[in-house]
Amino acid sequence: MSAPFDVITTGRVGVDLYPEQIGVALADVRTFAKSLGGSPTNVAVAAARLGSRSAVVTKVGDDPFGPFVRTALEGFGVDARWVGTDPELRTPIVFCEVHPPDRFPLLFYREPKAPDMNLTPADFDLDAVRDAGLFWTTGTGLSDEPSRGAVLTALEARGRKAFTVHDLDHRPMFWPSDAEARRWARTALPHVTVAVGNQDEVEMAVGTRDPEAAAEALLELGVEVAVVKRGGEGVFARTARGERIDLPPVRLRVLNGLGAGDAFGGALCHSLVSGWDLERALRTANAAGAIVASRLACADDMPTHDDIEDALRCPA
User: Fold this and answer.
1) Collapsed DSSP state (helix, strand, coil) of residue 157
2) CATH node for 7-313
3) What integer pLDDT is reported at residue 315 of this predicted model?
4) Higher pLDDT, 1 or 219
5) Which of left, alpha, beta for 273 (phi over 0: left; psi -120 to 50: alpha)?
């Protein structure tokens, strides 16, 4: 048997189309750059770029973009053995607009349903999930069946082993209501040891945007570490042991903020499985997010260790 994976993620995958004309409305964009996409897929890429042995459990369509996804993953060093194929649904594509510093609208093509929402428990190697150094799930994976049941089955099999991470990853367009999203977030959170979300996402889950109060509420739901991403204001975290970490942002000029959270997540994964203390892990993740926000793409632009060290040396 092969050695356990450092990081296994599961959930959304697709093809991102980034405009090559910055500050232009989608209707007026002339050319696009194609890239691997999907938040947990990008997290696996980011962790692999830093040296973690990573894999993703997801599903593509039986179309030309399916082989593109597998080839791209392999090129990034991410194991694609658990990338299944849905015989009927199409691999999703996502168009974005880029209006720095803070407006990046997305147009998702995931209808009538994305293949990654058809994941079932049979698509998971539960022994591999149990053995991995870190298992990463997302809120989008809870937004429909059978994916929701599959994710919860995998979390139950994992048994709250450290590190089991849930990224709140709230995309309102994938849910009938915020109340339904909150219900399933609060169902998943008692099964994990680490919760991660931005202020919009923690507000969805626990009803407040205040980082301190939101982290406390997440801890009360049973997690051991609560991380609240604050964008241009940095990152805040609390632990069940009473540790409190409040870090300022790494200031780089923003070009496209869409991949920042995925870079943050991948760097956090790598840091945790590397045994780094939480403050060092969050500083690394903070820098990784800032670096990708300063670049156009996401998967293709994930930072190296040298990139992160350079960013951390920059004055705030």
Assistant:
1) helix
2) 3.40.1190.20
3) 58
4) 219
5) alpha
